[in-house]
Each structure stands twice: as structure tokens, then as C-alpha cells.
């Protein structure tokens, strides 16, 4: 670059800001954006506090009920409990799939539940339109406003006759184009940066918020790169358009296609290409596999008889009544282990289908950077499918361990006459609570490499296209 290029770009940017100030573009946009941000923030904070309070009260209630039990361990296993997916402060920014996949897991003997009780089940508007969140504004509304103002940047110069005047002053078309890009990108940075700074400050002083700062920084970087991409697209359309009306129609169609239609089409194609069995069919498979056995391992009765013979040989006795342990506890755990095995057997195929769908959507993000941004945003917020799946796996592990402890506690106490064993509250109180932590940031970044590469590749492609098109179209 020549030495006089920087002063030239600075003067072009200053000119754009003076025009924006004179036409009240910046002030109007700022009022619109900050009004939406304020409304969304209030709703988000209210919903977050309500959800967090509900979780804390429910956890305390179930824990108190659990500790107060004075009953048979297996009865306690049937009584069960509930596990709640922990909230984090960034998840309030982008709830992602939490509203649709549920946040509650039921712990119960003999039954393998799924994560359930989603907000969308009882909210038809949420199913159709999604919740009004900060991420919705950042992903849809700001890009639309940015496309509108950037797409008319060059067409305004052409229609007002100032384009030829600028060329007569020695400004090259490429310099003018990049001045427009820089000016409009600075517009959007000035609009959203205060919001991001407030989020950073809030995380810094919030309890455990420091653990999320790395995620938020990557989130901010992803959005700022995407806004640069949107700016390039808007200015490119302005370069190729002769009139502002044509440019506005083009960007509106582009926004609808990339941000509304393509994500739905990609999701529909993933579901059609890799269809999932229904929940009822899956539960029937697990039940049938448990009763009849898998891999030729015999029916429920046959497996029980073989296990009984194994126990009699192990303890060298002839009858179950002679065993030094409670046979009910051991038998219950044996069948529980086999049911877990059957569940894992059929769920592995279901999980493979889930992974194929996610891989398809990841590849679709290469063709649509908006989809890549959306997936990156959910991943950093801990609300994508990977985090949902991780919670489900950890919850199932806790459930299986808890049921095992209860059954083995029963097995340690042989039946004394007709009186069943009753565990005291001290036993239930020493059982550990469910603990869930977010996966390491490096792991999440590794899974979002394709999305990050997609955004950078589109930036490079649009930059090169804009550079060469501006040389030929504006001469």
C-alpha cells in the first residue's frame, strides 16, 4: 500500500460517519438496536433467574426428600429423583437447543429415561419462532440492518452523482470500496462492542464467570468476523447494483435465503437423509431386547436361572435361602446391568444417526456461513447437541451408579424372616449428589474447527471477489 492510502481511507471513513450523523442513520440504528437489546436482556435475565431458582429449589426439595427416607433401598430406587442440566451465564445469551431438547433427567429403577421436559412442549410460539434472546438479535436483526445500509453505499454515490466527483479527485474505485467496507464495519462494531464489553464485565465479576471468559471471547470473535463477512457481502451487492432499490431487494432475498430458509432446509435434509426411529419404537426395541435377549443370550427367565446357578456354585450352597447375601439385591442388579447393556446396544445405533445428522449440518455450514456462526454460538454457550449429549451421558452414568449402590446395599443384608431390610436416613444422606461440568474449551474448539474455517474461507472469498469486481464494475 502507498503511504497516502491510510489518510485517504481515514478521510473516506470520516466522510461516511459525517453523512451517517447528518442523516441520523447511526442514531436511529443505535436506538433500535439498544431498545431491542434492553428488552431482550430484561426478558433473558428474568427467565434465567426464574429457571435458576426453580432448579435450586427443586434440587433442595429432592435432596431433602431423598435424605429423609427410611425405607428399603430398592423402594428408594423406584422413588428415584430428578437431575437438572446446570445453567451457565452464556447459555442465557444463546439458549440453543435447551428449549427443545429438555433439561431434566428422571432417575428411576428399571427404566432408562431420556432428557425431557422442554420449554417448547408447552409453548407453541416458541416451537414456531424461537425465544427472543440476545443471540436472535445478534444473528438475524443486526446482519439485516447491516446489509441494508452497506448495500446502498455505492448505489447512493452513483445515484447522487458524487461517484464521478470522487473519481475526478483521484480516488480509485478499489480505495472507495474498501473505505465503504471499513466505515460500515466500524458502524456495527460501535453498536455491538458496548454489549460485548458489558457481558465480559458481568462474567468477570460473577461467581465462576471467569471459567467462561474464554468461551465468550471466542464467541465475540466469531460474531465480529461474521459481521465483517456481512459487510463485504452488502458492499459487493452495492458494487454490482445500479440502483438502491435493486440492491435492497437483493440483500433482503439473500438474508431470507441464508438466515431463514437454508437452515431449515439443511435440518430437513439431515432428518430425511438420516432418519431417526420414534421414541416409542426405540423403547419397544429396548424392552423386547431385555425380555428376549440380544446376541442369542437367552430370555429374561433363562438368564435369571443361569445367574442363580452361578451364585449357588460360587457360595457352594444348594438353595437360595442358604446364600449369605440377599439374593433379591444381586438379582435386581444383574437384570439392571443387562438392561443397561441392551440400552447401550440399541442407543449406539441411535447415537450414530445423531452424529451423522450433526456431521451433515457441519458440512452444510461450509456452504452457509450463517449456519456455521449459529453452531459456533451454541457450542460456546454450551447449548448445542454435543453438550446436550454429554449431559445425558453423565446423567445416565450417575443413574446407573446410584441404582447399583442401592441394589448392592440391599444385597449386603440377607432377609431376616419375613421382614425386609430398611435402610436408615444416614445411608441415603451419604450418597453423592450429581455433579456436571462443562467440557474443556479445547475440546469444544476442536469440534468447531469446520465452522471457524468456513467463516474464514468465506471472508477470504468475498474479499477477493470484492477486490476484483470493484476494479472492473466501477471503471
Could you tell me the number of beta strands?
3
Relative strand content: under 5%
Instruction: Give the biggest sheet.
Output: 3 strands, antiparallel
The termini sit apart by 20 Å
Transmembrane segments: 25-46, 129-149, 182-205, 217-239, 245-263, 451-469
Organism: Pedobacter steynii
GO molecular function, one term: ABC-type transporter activity
Keywords: Membrane, Transmembrane, Transmembrane helix
Please characterize this protein's 3D structure.
The protein is mainly alpha-helical and 475 residues long. It has a domain at 4-32 and 131-270. The chain has 20 helices and 3 strands. A 3-stranded antiparallel β-sheet has the order 1-2-3. A hairpin with a 2-residue loop joins strand 2 and strand 3 (111-112). Helix 7 runs parallel beside helix 11, helix 7 runs antiparallel to helix 12 (244-273) and helix 10 (173-205) packs antiparallel against helix 20. It is elongated. This is ABC-2 type transport system permease protein. It comes from Pedobacter steynii. The chain crosses the membrane at residues 25-46, 129-149, 182-205, 217-239, 245-263, 451-469. Keywords: Membrane, Transmembrane, Transmembrane helix.
Amino acid at each position: 500500500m502507498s503511504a497516502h492510502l491510510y489518510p485517504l481511507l481515514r478521510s473516506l471513513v470520516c466522510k461516511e460517519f459525517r453523512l451517517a450523523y447528518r442523516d441520523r442513520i447511526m442514531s436511529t440504528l443505535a436506538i433500535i438496536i439498544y431498545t431491542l437489546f434492553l428488552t431482550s436482556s430484561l426478558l433473558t435475565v428474568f427467565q434465567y433467574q426464574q429457571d435458576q431458582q426453580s432448579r435450586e429449589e427443586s434440587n433442595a426439595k429432592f435432596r431433602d426428600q431423598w435424605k429423609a427416607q427410611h425405607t428399603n433401598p430398592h423402594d428408594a430406587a423406584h422413588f428415584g429423583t430428578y437431575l437438572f442440566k446446570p445453567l451457565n451465564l452464556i447459555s442465557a445469551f444463546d439458549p440453543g437447543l435447551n428449549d427443545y431438547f429438555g433439561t431434566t433427567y428422571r432417575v428411576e429403577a428399571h427404566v432408562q429415561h431420556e432428557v425431557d421436559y422442554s420449554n417448547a412442549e408447552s409453548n407453541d410460539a416458541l416451537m414456531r419462532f424461537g425465544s427472543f434472546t440476545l443471540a436472535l438479535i445478534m444473528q438475524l436483526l443486526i446482519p439485516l440492518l447491516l446489509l441494508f445500509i452497506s448495500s446502498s453505499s455505492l448505489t447512493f454515490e452513483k445515484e447522487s452523482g458524487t461517484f464521478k466527483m470522487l473519481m475526478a479527485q483521484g480516488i480509485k474505485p478499489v480505495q472507495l470500496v474498501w473505505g465503504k467496507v471499513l466505515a460500515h464495519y466500524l458502524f456495527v462494531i460501535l453498536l455491538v462492542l458496548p454489549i460485548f464489553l458489558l457481558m465480559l464485565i458481568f462474567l468477570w465479576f460473577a461467581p465462576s464467570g471467569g471459567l467462561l471468559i474464554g468461551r465468550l471471547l471466542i464467541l465475540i470473535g466469531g460474531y465480529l468476523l461474521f459481521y465483517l463477512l456481512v459487510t463485504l457481502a452488502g458492499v459487493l451487492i452495492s458494487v454490482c447494483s445500479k440502483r438502491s432499490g435493486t440492491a435492497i431487494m437483493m440483500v433482503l432475498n439473500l438474508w431470507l435465503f441464508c438466515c431463514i430458509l437454508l437452515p431449515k432446509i439443511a435440518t430437513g435434509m439431515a432428518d430425511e437423509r438420516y432418519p431417526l426411529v420414534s421414541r416409542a419404537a426405540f423403547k419397544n426395541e429396548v424392552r423386547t431386547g431385555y425380555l428376549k435377549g440380544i446376541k442369542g443370550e437367552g430370555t429374561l427367565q433363562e438368564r435369571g436361572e443361569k445367574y442363580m446357578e452361578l451364585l449357588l456354585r460360587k457360595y457352594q450352597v444348594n438353595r437360595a435361602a442358604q446364600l449369605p447375601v440377599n439374593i433379591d439385591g444381586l438379582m435386581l442388579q444383574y437384570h439392571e446391568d443387562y438392561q443397561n447393556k441392551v440400552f447401550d446396544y440399541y442407543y449406539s445405533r441411535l447415537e450414530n444417526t445423531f452424529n451423522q445428522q450433526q456431521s451433515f449440518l457441519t458440512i452444510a455450514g461450509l456452504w452457509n456461513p450463517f449456519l456455521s456462526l449459529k453452531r459456533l454460538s451454541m457450542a460456546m454457550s454450551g447449548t448445542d447437541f454435543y453438550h446436550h449429549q454429554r449431559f445425558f451421558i453423565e446423567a445416565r452414568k450417575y443413574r446407573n451408579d446410584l441404582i447399583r449402590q442401592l441394589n448392592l446395599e440391599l444385597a449386603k443384608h440377607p432377609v431376616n424372616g419375613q421382614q425386609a431390610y430398611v435402610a436408615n436416613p444416614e445411608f441415603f444422606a451419604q450418597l453423592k449428589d450429581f455433579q456436571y461440568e462443562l467440557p474443556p474449551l479445547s475440546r469444544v474448539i476442536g469440534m468447531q474447527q469446520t465452522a471457524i474455517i468456513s467463516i474464514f474461507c468465506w471472508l477470504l472469498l468475498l474479499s477477493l471477489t470484492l477486490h476484483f469486481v470493484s476494479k472492473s464494475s466501477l471503471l
